[in-house]
Amino acid sequence: MDISSLLSPPEATQPLSPPPVSMQSPRKQMRRHPSGPVKRGLTSLPLSHSAVPASNIPLHVSTPTHRPTASSPLASPTTGVLRNSTPPRLVEVSRQSSTPSMDALADLASMQNHQPTRSAAPSLRSKDSYESQLTPSTIFPVVQPPSAAANPRASFDIAMAETPKPAARIDFAGTSLSPELQKNANVLAVDLQQNPHSYESHAQLIRLLHQAFVHHVYPPTSPDAHGDPHSFDLLHDLRAAREGMDKIFAIGEDLWAEWIQDESMLAKTIEEKISLMEKCSKAVTEEYGSVKLWIVYGEWLLHTHKLYHQTSEEAAAGLSEDEREVGQDIFSWSVVVEVWQRGAEETMWRMNDSHLVWNRYIDFLIQDSQKTRSEDLIREIKFLFDARLQTPHADWDGTFQAFSTFVSAYMDKQYEEIMVTTNRKATDAKSKWDARQPMEIALQQAQEAGDRAAEYVALANYVQWERTLAGRKRFSFDLTNALYQRAALRFPSDPQLWEDHILYLIEEGHAHRTTESVLPTLGRATRHCPWSGSLWAQYLLSSEREAQSFSQTEDIKHRATNTGLLDVGGVEEVIKVYAAWCTYLRRRAFQVDSTDEDLDVAEMGIRSAIEDLQDLATRKFGEGSNPDPMFRLERIYIKFLSESGSWDTARETFRGLIPKQGDSWTFWIQFYMWEMSCWAKFIQREKTEDGNISRKTPVPHYATAVLRQAVKRETLDWPEKVMCAYITHCEDHEDVEELQMAIVEVRKMEKIIARRREVEALQAAAKSEAQATLPPQHAAEAITRTIEANTSPSGKRKRGGEDEPVADSSKKSKIEGGNGREVNATVASRKQVKRDREHATILVQNLPEVVTELKLRQFFRDCGKVNSLKIIHQNGTSAVIEFDAREAALFAQTRDGKDFEGQPLHIQLGSGSTIFVSNFPPTADEGYIRELFDRFGQIVDVRFPSLKYNTHRRFCYVQFRLNEQAQAATELDGQQMDQDLKLVAKISNPAAKQDRTGPMEEGREVFCKNLHWSASEEDVKTLFSRYGNVESVRIPRNVKGQSKGFCYVVFSSEEEANAATALNAHSFMSRELHVEISSKMGAKRQATTIISSVDRSMSPSTGVNGAAGSPSAMSTTSSNIEQPSGDRQARTIALMNVPDTVNDSRLRAITEPYGSLVKIVLRPDHQGAVVEYTDAQNAGKASLGLEGYEITPGRNLRVGIVPEMLREKAERKTDKIQIGKAKKDNPGSTQASLQPSGPIRRPGQQAGRRGGLGQKRGLGFVAPSGKSQQEEPTNTSTQAGKSNDDFRSLLNKK
After folding, report:
1. Less crowded by CB within 10 Å, the N or C end of the chain?
2. Polar residues composition bias: which ranges (predicted)?
3. Helix axes 291-309, 270-286, angle to 10 degrees
């Protein structure tokens, strides 16, 4: 076989250990002898028939060790290893000779390879019926579309059927399905025919057919009826759908449980039951640690055991004598116990539900001890109990009670001593469970609520907590590992969970806290996420690290690339796998014992990988595309050639990359660094050979030529970097003539680049203006086309032609567009906006997981001033950066594809990613807005306007991560909301801001003042109707319902309103009217909301705290607020530390539950509000309940009196990054800083002396007193407060 066939095997099934392969090398012909066949531990015995609640957090597959025989104990209570470690035991079957076919089946069943297991630990015990706990689950994993390298799988899983099979059904007409289900099945079948790698379509079709099968066997309309499962007309399609999905994906815990349950109803013959055993064995191996599947496996096996061992004639009526004999041999009692033993061992560290398996297993052993009274078996059971009680688990008390019963029955004389010793040894296990119980409860609550998002968060927090315990007393590798396993069972298609688990195992192995191999876990990870290139790359690296043979590592690579799922994941995922494979080949070629054949294999393998990647890119993006702007595979090849001494070939490889990579400054710098390394090795070799070298060192002319060529490229993405390197290199290594020429070339290029960037900025500005005039849907399409034009698949950025520099930026420049039309672009012609967030923002993706704001700001500092920067850790790491001007954002986009800490950045403009939202309910807060738009994509930020200068503003901006998400969110535009409100949701564009419309703006509204207090709306309408059609009349009223003496009248037309001004100076109800056209007034800096009126006797005076109109009182009084006094003082509270984005409706929503309100006065200019209740008792309750209330994240309310609130200043905050002098000038304005907490004061607070011990704080209410005003102290600040008894009586007063 030649090298090409070895590196690119056919799609057919690859044997685990191929025969010896001869490989032709241009240097030498050698014969490589592969290692022996790979031994794989196979899980023996079948599965069972029910479902148990699934668990939560990624799973790890531990490498099993040899299991003891069924009669041997599970684990040592002290060391955790097997007490009696024996080799795998074959199930010996003693039987009389029967028919040859039955003998063969019996031999097949008896030759089971038992998978070794890890040390076992104790389990929990429950007295409840097991059948009541086995509730089937139909929750399927939510699978993201393939986006990464495929998963390693066994060869027989990857290979498609070798024999022709009938085509899958795509028309379900005429079947037993209902018409609606037939339509759904047809759609799914067609989708699978077009896209066989669609996980969700596979799962949905299987669910649909499974449900039809269940309804066939158990008709919903006839509960007592029972259909024949074999007569289901779609049985073949159901089996074919499951087998087809199993060839591509790991189907998951729940689908496996349903498959086994269905087949258990269909399995009648001994052959079918053996086949079902194999499915059960595969299921528990693939879904490692699944309690649900182990119970399904064990219960079905127990049922089958009873079927073949019953002696009644009725039970044996349907079985032949041969079948009974073979069935009794295969499904023996020892096999049943062994399966439950294995299940207990593999699930022992699942703290939440491992007792469901362990209790069942220990019950079987106790049953055997009751029959045999074997001393060895009794000692073994005690040992198992000891080990179980030293393992943390939820049902520890149940296990201890069962152990107590066991000791009472068999070791009664030593009962007290045994129980005391056992309880002492279990202290550590109980403390570990107690520490984890709160997180287990939170996880269980999320699962019971069916909230997958909350469950994921609870699992992530749980894992993070476990990881922080590393090296501490409560740390347990087994518990953390089992937690990851639980997560993988619940979210099997999340590559990030699997990768975190893998890295955790690698880290723990490096710290010598575990000796487990990571390969089994990687095998399952790649089976569940075959599109994840990161997982496949880790699989290859781990295979090399654990010294697997070349054929085994090669098999992993072929399994990754031959399924087709890796290609679906994207080119980036394919590159990850090929990079890991090529680096492995390179390292292997230069090992101490490597041969010429290894060099040939490495060279051909790397070249083949480069060609395969280019073919994939050609299929996806077209001829000449650049699949890898970082040229990772080519760099590996160049490194290989350099190590092998082929310097000229490596140099030519670099030069061959110039057509595709020549616009990238990183390419030229790496080319230059490679040339310098070659030059350094040459100099070192000269010194070594000659022993003495002249004072003048040879000049690195090749390196100089590389930089010279790079500087002359006008399309370079970051020319400053290359120019700086060129000058520095010439200063260090070249003569003065070369240095001067370098300075000349750099100066010429600086001028060219300056002109080019100016032209690009003007073109981009003109294009943005054109987009702003388009409807939202067309604007989004135009933005998408712009991004695609700036980032072509080949990695080159399309740039406009060069024009002469513009002398004055305020003058128009005519730029020739690609379609021949002239586009006028001018800064002066654009509508100026204070802060153009929408056009000055970029989205930076593919950032390293650990990245800081400082590093990002340093990376983009040359582009312009950064206003704000927000890092997002979701679906990878990305950042949203807002610049001071959109020209800076356009410049920053030119860094797309650049390397940032080893990763190529993906940068796109943020234009179109923000929507303007208004007309939502007044009580809506950030949580309401996020919940409303969350289904459209990831929300980066929600911004409410400040009400400091206008309390009537009610809108917000919602910024999404991607433009497409914002565009999708506009579908809510016009949606009917509460209170007959129609939501407004449009793409935000400050340049397209529209002027307000309405009666006042249209000149149809008349303002009339000096109106008589008793005049009604009808009186005013009658007066003004003589001048035209009056649409409405509004007379503002105060808290008592009285007119404020002015009104607004709206006419049908502007002419009618102008005519009505004739009433100016007209006498009406004995008062002279002042009539004029309404004009825009200053923004209202406070808002008064009147809810109800109070009795006139309760009206307030104008003073503060009862000091009527005193100068001191007036000095502390802000405009337009009447200060409370008397009874009003007791029922009025002041709220402080209110964010200036909170409106009066939201304040009403949180204050009204405490009692009826009179009014709310919102004062955002003082970070507060005045709330007046109708009853002092309700005000007291509110002051207690609202103190410390978190009105927005990080902002807690304070309750006090009105003068205290009025002394607060307006909130100062900024969402811009403060640096240098600005940071010193605004030390307290860093992004909504919290107000300093002060002493809590209640409304109407009084104080009094307590025998010289200081003042006693009142409880917020004015004490009722029979004394007259004259008997009160003259100093109101020293009035006696109420006692606790008075306070309690006031609260209890009806």
Report:
1. C
2. 62-87, 1112-1123, 1227-1236, 1266-1282
3. 160
